[in-house]
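Good morning C.,

I know you're traveling, so I'll keep this short. The sequence:
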Amino acid sequence: MKVLVTGADGFVGSLLVRRLAELGHETVAAVRPSDAMPRELARRDALGDVPMIELEVLDSDSVRRAVDRNWDVIVHMAAVSSGSQAQRDPMSAWHVNAVGTARIAYGLGAAKAAGGDPLLLFVSTAEVYGAGSEASRVETDVAQPVSPYAASKLAAEVACLETSRRTGLRVVIARPFPHIGPGQDERFVVPAFLERIRFAKKIDAPVVKVGRIAPVREFTHVVDVVSAYALLIDKGRAGEVYNVSCGRATSVRDIFFMISDALGHRVIPEEDHELIRPVDIPYLVGDSSKLRVETGWKPTISLEETIREIVDAEAN
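The tokens, ready to paste straight into the viewer:
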């Protein structure tokens, strides 16, 4: 299949591009034409011979040029992906995540109307479920986002599904729960903890400043998440939403101490008001039964293995 991956120089996107190429798909990487960070440039270099095109989702002409190429599949991952970044600039998150996704969906809807039959796999977020109760989220739970990031992603889902109902465009929505792995940047909790604890070890400090550590999450290896996306391209049902989750509940506090122990420097976490989010979800764990039954997916890498891999990768 001829597949375009947007956000292809991102933490997950770059791995997905390589995975799809390995599976034999004719894969093309879409990246922003400017403002790339050093880590993103390194990911682009690591894509090797994979063809690359420029895509700016805020530019209608750029979207039209990228979409109008007879794709079999577009995996749309380009986004403001950091909750803290979206909190600082909510309008930017809405423009990129909601309006940008609507442009992609509408372009593919036009391709469908012209006689094509593309598939849009939209990567949303489990944060659309909001606070809720201490129970594993299922796809039929009511979405109640409590952040600009989650709200803009839910709006993007609505745009995709509305286009599907209006044009017949095949749409599959993935809602990934927290995922981690080597190469994730310090805006996210695990690499942030790793950086702070490593520095504390260097200066022999007994305390590390943190945000809230009581919340419970799950932390799936990014490689397993990428495998789920690849399976959804082949086996996902149009019009459906799928949780991508390992289902293992772990407190952020426990993650902190796992990293601390892996680094060999046991420190005390101390909550700092400046690091605390205005609104946090106390419990965010998913039930991926639907994904597992319909695609055969299952996570293969344990949390302990994942933490060790991240620590070793950063050390090297």
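Safe travels,
E.
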